[in-house]
Structures are given as structure tokens and as C-alpha cells.
Amino acid sequence: MLPEEYEAEPKPMKGLRILRWPIAIALVLGIVLGAVIPRAFHHSPPLTKSQASAVAGALGLTLGELPSGWLSVPGASPIAALTGSGGSGAPSDSQRRQNQAIVAHFQACIGLSNARDRTFGAAGILPLVQVPSPSFFSRASIHAYEAGTATQYYTDPSNVAKDQAQMAILNYPVCLDQAIARMFALGTVNNPTTLAVPAHSVAIHAGEGAFVRSATAKFSIPNGSTKITLWLGVTLIIQGHIEQSLYTYSPIGPFPTSETQHIVDQLVKKIQAGPVSSLA
What we know:
By secondary structure, the chain is of the alpha+beta class. It is built from six helices and ten strands. It has helices spanning 49-59, 78-83, 93-110, 157-167, 172-184, 257-273; strands at 35-36, 71-72, 129-132, 136-137, 146-153, 199-201, 211-223, 226-239, 242-250, 278-279. Strands 2, 3, 4, 5, 6, 7, 8 and 9 form an eight-stranded antiparallel beta sheet that branches. A hairpin with an 8-residue loop joins strand 4 (136-137) and strand 5. Helix 3 packs antiparallel against helix 5. The protein starts with 34 loop residues before the first strand and ends with a strand.
């Protein structure tokens, strides 16, 4: 269970349901592990949906990739809303319109039309599966850093390569982080498209062969009669069949770049090695 004080945390994602990467809601499948996946699994024959679910689940964030002292917290949380593990209700007509406006703003930010945009637009290809990690907190309090991942497996790695080409656009991580922050604010502000979201790219070193882009954003949303300031980080890790989004969330200050780098180092190693597990 979440700490009692956590219940005071606002729930800005209530009612929001995004149907396209990177914060799509996905069903986490229960998989029984059985035959070994080859180390270079991203070069092996395409996986079945159940195998892909097991792979994506095995590659997600765990306590093993986090600094000492972190803990897994079940139940609804801001980070669960970002990774897709928290579920969501149906959006209102107003929220749909606002979401469309946020997407249009994102597409203008990266200089692509809806027809060419692979993130939220018509050019996008859905993954075979997307599996969210649990939610992780740096301590048992609402005043804590949070982290989680959403890991996708694509049957055809050429689609991943095309997504990567779009992610290589200079301002892409900043534009994406700002868009996600505005989506996060849906239902808490009258017009999220006008929400001020200062953001900047974060220099994260990638392991050989992996593609990594990262950004962090700061924004404020209403919290009763006052406002709460939040920091939201998005880091994209791409290799082979895998597209992974690492989300960090904080109500206490910017998430440390050194900790993001530590987590990314561990996730990249895991992706490159392939899951040390077996599939039924």
C-alpha cells in the first residue's frame, strides 16, 4: 500500500487516456517463463506476443537498476500514470480536444506534419507489446523522486529505426517532454497548451550500439488553493526491437542527472545482454 500521506498527492492524469506511444495504456500480461531467449535476441526470429511480453517485462526497470534505498510502491501514483501501469478512465470531449491541441503543438515543435509524425501521428506503428514496470520511489513519501519504464517490443526493427530517425531531430526530446507534461496537466488547468513548461535536453551517455535521448521539464499545476511545482524527465533508449521510455518524476526538485545516467547504464546493459530468463 502507499503511505497514507501519499493520498494528498494530486492526480492530474485522472481521465486521460493516450492511445499512442510513449504513454499508451497497455495490458500487462502474466507470463510463465520457460525456453531461453538467445543473448542477441534482437537478431533472432520474431517473437510471439506472449514471448515479446516476457521479454519487455524482463527488460523493464527493477530495484536492481536503482540506487540503494529505493523501494517499489504498488497502486496508483504519478509515475504509474506515465508508464501506463496505473490505468485511466475515459477522457472527456474537452480533454480529447485539448490532447489534440497538445499533439499539434508537439508536431509543430519538431517540424513534422501529422501525416509524417511517428510519435502521435498517422505515420506511427504500434508495437507488438508494451509493458510498464512497477513504480519506484526513492523513499516512502510524497516528497520523493519517482521512476518507472514503459518497454515496447516491435516485430520489425526497421520500424524502430524509423522511430529513431525522428527521435534524432534536434529538439525532439524537449518537445516530447513538454508535450507529456501538458498531457499530465489535463484536467487540472483550463488550457494545457498554454501551460509554461521550460525544458532542456540532458546529456546522457549511451552504451555502444544504443541510442539515447533525454530531457527534463519543469511545470506547475493547481493543488487546492496553491500550486505544486513538478519536474518530469523522459529518457528514450532504443536498440534492435526495443524502444524503452524511462520516466522520472519529482515534486522536490530536478531529478539528479547522475542518477538518470546510473539507471540508463544498467538498462542499456540489460537490453544489450538480452533477458536472462526463459519462456514457455
